[in-house]
């Protein structure tokens, strides 16, 4: 090894050091399951249920927690915090699977699980809007949302296993669960049939996988019959909030309609539990291509190391980090909001420090249904003249690119 290479190699090892220390500390935390096991036992006791019930997704759905009674029973929460949850739940409903609830290590705002599913008093702030994506003006038929020439969304349900406090579709979640009516589904299918330029259909909700196997099979079958559809994408957070939903029977159905792409939403590395990993493995082994759409959330993942840990962990599970969404100004979610400049800073920090495969596109979902806009730190930093573009490498070294 020449002296120059040796020096550079030492420099790189030094650059890796701080993150590596953080990673080791995290792995210790991740492998400590004592609190989670304790929570699970308490929940099983509370519901007088068995391990077998726990593994059953329908049991998990039926026993979604939505009263403070269970919280009082399991977590040591103050009277004030319980009163705040009650106050918010009279405005916005909440609901969480026993599985996801059991992952809460600390019933406070420093816990990524707690933050994402337990109502916060901050939700009552009046900041933000109800429909910043203009979904009400992009609905040409049935349950279709169309903002692009060659692809469209079909919303098959409003229900989700757990209601994310940061949800951008808060407005649709309402006060009770309902699946899209058969006639609306049929109208949607007809619209897609009549528009053969649509080649990519996203089946989502809510959470598309809250439907029964039979109902889902029927919709996928209908879509599959349309010759112009090349791929079907499914939007679901069940691998994260209800991994028990991924059963061999479901996988078999999905396999039938290949090519299927599933996009899910892991927001924090601790969400990649053994159960979640297994669910994703079953899907990927069946030839389903998985992607992740993370949302930047203040106090959950708005720091470089959390994302630098999460994304390679997803790759290890054969899930490609696809998008990072900039949070929207949805009413009730102010406490999750971060600035674009902080988001750009984090995405910039990934480049060079981790595999290119672990670097998703950072996107801004524009107002009034005008589509997603990529936000790229490299381009924003670029200076240019007639001849050249001047950019910086991940370490801030200046580079000149000839335009011609
Ligand atoms: C996000 C979105 C899509 C998919 O966009 P991609 O960039 O292809 O992932 C399609 N239709 C609508 C309405 C969307 O909001
Ligand atoms: S799973 Fe998706 S649609 Fe459902 S509450 Fe969470 S973010 Fe909203």
Describe, in short, the structure shown:
The chain is built from 17 helices and 12 strands.
Summarize model confidence as the mean pLDDT: 94
What is the first-to-last residue Cα distance? 37 Å
- At CATH level 2, the architecture of the largest domain is Alpha-Beta Barrel
Largest sheet: 9 strands, mixed
Q: State the CATH class of the largest domain.
A: Alpha Beta
CATH topology of the largest domain: TIM Barrel
- Secondary structure class reads alpha/beta
Strand order of the largest sheet: 1-2-3-4-5-6-7-8-9
Number of helices: 17
Number of DSSP E strands: 12
Radius of gyration: 22 Å
- Uncertain residue ranges: none
Give the cofactors and ligands: pyridoxal-5'-phosphate, iron/sulfur cluster
The topology string of helices and strands comes to HHHHHHHHEEHHEHEHHEHEHEHEEHEEE
Strand content: 5-15%
Helical proportion, percent range = 40-55%
| Total number of distinct structural domains | 2
The CATH superfamily title of the largest domain: Aldolase class I
Q: Could you say which overall geometry the principal axes of the C-alpha atoms support?
A: globular
